[in-house]
Amino acid sequence: MWLLWVFYAAVMRLKMVRDAAGLEGKPWIKVFGYLTLAVGLVLDFFVNVVAGTIVFRELPREWTLSTRLWRLSNGSAGWRQVWALSIRVALLDEIDPEGIHRG
Fold it and tell me: What total number of domains does the chain contain?
């Protein structure tokens, strides 16, 4: 899960640079950035299927853990909502350039 968070932080930083038009004329940053995104998505899928299933005691309905956390944190009250909201707020929201990670 730690490695997934590292990839998430890297991709969010790249998103900030891209949105500020900082990637124009920098093809190697784009290449490495898209490679990082692709590896991160594959990792996200496997963490969602394995760790997400264990932690939340349900089979995934989504492809990524981020999307699962968004659904659960905005879903019906209960222990899954508490855990998902805690994880999302503590680890994802602070790093997302928009201030809230929507999955």
Answer: 1
Count of residues in the chain = 103
CA–CA–CA angle 56, 62, 64 (5° rounding): 85
CA–CA separation, 97 and 39 (whole Å): 21
Instruction: Quickly tell me which residue has 């508490």 as its tokens.
Output: 82
Mean per-residue pLDDT for 77-83?
A: 95
Sequence-distant (≥ 6) Cβ neighbours of residue 17 within 8 angstroms: 23, 29
74: left (phi over 0), alpha (psi -120 to 50) or beta: alpha
> Is 99 within a domain?
no
pLDDT tens sequence across 26-69: 888 888 989 999 999 999 999 999 999 999 999 999 999 999 99
Residue 72: is it exposed, middle or buried by C-beta count within 10 angstroms (0-12/13-18/19+)?
buried
Residue range(s) defining the domain that contains residue 58: 2-93
